What we know:
By secondary structure, this protein is of the alpha+beta class.
Amino acid sequence: MDATKVEQLRAELAEAQRLAQIDPLIQIWNRRAVIDILRRELYRGQRERTRIGVLFVDVDHFKRTNDVYGHAVGDTVLCEVAVRIRATIRPYDHVGRYGGDELLVIVAGTGAERGAIRTAERISSAMKSRTVMTEAGAVAVTVSIGVAVADIDANDAEGLIVEADRAMYDAKRSGGDCVHSA
């Protein structure tokens, strides 16, 4: 096998590995990938003695958006939510689709809970700052966000996600369109 063919196969393998980690609709990390990233960040946090924040983001009234406007509009809304989150977070933070209309944001190296909460507040503001333009017209989007911050020696990714999820449900019970911390 010549060098060109080997390089082509390597490139194809790298692309297949990338695609296996990316959500095909909204082009961010998929659930498995974002959980793996969280685990790695928790270990890095232990090594560097920094804290890691997890934001559990849920699009408010998303089922109603799908029911009223259709799933194509819902897909457009999800894509725009991902774009706005990526534009809001730092380059070394991560966002992934956890499921449905739920996304996880990993805030790496946060010194305290306040940093993760500020990130969540920026995301919330970015959502309601303008409507999402869709084929059915403008759609207003808000999000409920739960925030959990790991202790420096934490390594339980799933437990941290559960904490952030509970905080998100507290935000939903408060009427949505807000940030709650664990």
